[in-house]
């Protein structure tokens, strides 16, 4: 994964005009990203991606425009960090059991935040010669069906994750919904005003998906309630997910970008 500094410079060099940093379960990179975006002339929206679960299905919940020092949110993130450390320790134990000699010290050069995650472990496995690429490391060792994988612990319900973001003054958006097969639930959450929008424009959404989620979101809107139709590339690194994928592979329509920025900058009072 790229550091916030590397990511912002890549965004600027690619001509991106609006960006959000939505690291999983951490706000650590936001201050640096905001400063660098200002220097490079990019409009910045602070973000996060909270890990959640619905009846065994992992669901990611994006947060935008929240108060980063929120005690409620930071207390939850501290708890998640502790669980992530325990999970990584167990994954390293599984590696050892499967003859993959990797330690926490081997991960250190690749960790860009405070907590090691699977992409960092995958990079270490490539460096140590156990895998030919990050994709290969996920497929052979750390992917969800691979021998060294350990399930996440105690993930919250998506609506609980959304509530944490909203309590911090932010807007909660369901990320890449095409992954989940939960369209009926998503429509209900939108209608019940429990979430603030949907990531309509994503690299894995085909035209029919985008049209469906756009219509679903617009059907739940009212004159007094704006719902967000956001977009993102889910970009981590050129070698993560799709080899050679470039920044900007998925583009949010300009009018939606302006609408999102204006609404988020205005705060939850709208």
UniProtKB/TrEMBL annotation:
MF annotations from Gene Ontology: 5'-3' DNA exonuclease activity; 5'-3' RNA exonuclease activity
InterPro entries from the UniProt entry: PHP_domain, Pol/histidinol_Pase-like
Record-given protein name: PHP domain-containing protein
